[in-house]
Design brief:
The protein has 16 helices and no strands. By secondary structure, it is an all-alpha fold. It starts with a helix and ends in a 12-residue tail after the last helix.
Length: 312
């Protein structure tokens, strides 16, 4: 499921896009934000689909080999360890996966089946596949560990897949690392006795609400923060502060002043990390200094009120 850090990233991207396009239609941009988050879930689902499409391709090739005119003993008595993998079959039989796929018409691997073939060719030549196929251990953990290794070592680092995903949805470039981790966590949690269920997009309604509220409050209130930021950056002209840095600072101020349940230190740390990943090399230090000063001022002036113990 999407975490608060990735929610902040999505909001940052939407605020930046809104500023760069000089668009003032808040409703339209909020719809795009929600669309972008939902499409991230599509990416999550596509990865599970890819696992089972590769399994289906392997099964198809086995059946074709049996029909050869000069079929070998191996063709007639193939090793079915891969197509019999219990976890893969749990995913293939998942009602939640099938329902989401049909509802959202996710037919990527039917339209672009060459990527299924690419992954299959790479998998069957890999050491993890050969080791698994030669093993006599049929325990569920062994089968699950193989599927996780298949995803982590073959699918996740595949550059052709990454390029494909980027072409389909530009925002997926930043989503791929998060979604890959999300897929692995889902696989790790799966048990032999349970049907496979897709994870929820949001942990709860509070996180879903946080996405929209943070976006709205930043867009509607950001102009009010300019004087406070200028006061804490006397040696900087506003236009010299990187656009992303300015957005991150304003998002953090919004959390200081409008989200009483989020500790100020959590807010500062989250935006420092985003700055390190998405802005300049020195942005983390710059943002830390500005936000630390602002949080102290807001606390002293009672502008920032946090509810609960340890929330400052």
């Amino acid at each position: 499921m999407i975490n608060r850090r990735h929610i902040r990233l999505k909001v940052m991207q939407s605020v930046y896009a809104m500023q760069q396009s000089h668009n003032t239609d808040l409703v339209k941009e909020e719809k795009f934000l929600n669309f972008s988050v939902q499409k991230m879930f599509d990416l999550y689902v596509l990865n599970f689909q890819l696992l089972i499409e590769v399994q289906k391709l392997a099964h198809k090739k086995i059946e074709l080999s049996k029909k050869k005119i000069l079929a070998t003993k191996e063709d007639l008595n193939p090793n079915t360890r891969f197509i019999d993998n219990v976890l893969l079959n749990q995913i293939r039989e998942s009602v939640s996966l099938e329902g989401y796929t049909e509802l959202n018409k996710l037919n990527n691997w039917e339209l672009d089946d060459e990527y299924v073939k690419i992954v299959w060719e790479e998998l069957k030549e890999s050491s993890i596949y050969k080791t698994y196929m030669e093993s006599d251990d049929n325990s569920y953990n062994t089968q699950k560990n193989f599927v996780i290794a298949f995803f982590k070592e073959i699918i996740a680092p595949n550059e052709k897949l990454a390029d494909y995903f980027e072409d389909k949805m530009i925002s997926w470039v930043d989503d791929i690392p998060f979604v890959n981790t999300w897929v692995v966590k889902t696989l790790n949690k799966q048990k032999a006795s349970s049907p496979f269920f897709l994870s929820k997009l949001y942990k709860d309604e509070e996180d879903k609400k946080f996405t929209s509220e943070l976006f709205r409050k930043v867009v509607l209130n950001q102009h009010k923060y300019d004087d406070d930021i200028k006061e804490k950056t006397p040696n900087w002209e506003t236009d010299r502060i990187a656009d992303i840095d300015m957005i991150l600072i304003k998002m953090a101020i919004t959390e200081f002043l409008h989200f009483s349940s989020i500790p100020s230190r959590v807010t500062i740390n989250e935006y420092i990390e985003l700055a390190k990943d998405y802005s300049t090399n020195k942005s983390g230090y710059f943002i830390n200094g500005v936000l630390d000063k602002l949080s102290k001022d807001y606390l002293e002036s009672n502008k920032m009120v946090k509810i609960g113990r340890g929330l400052l």
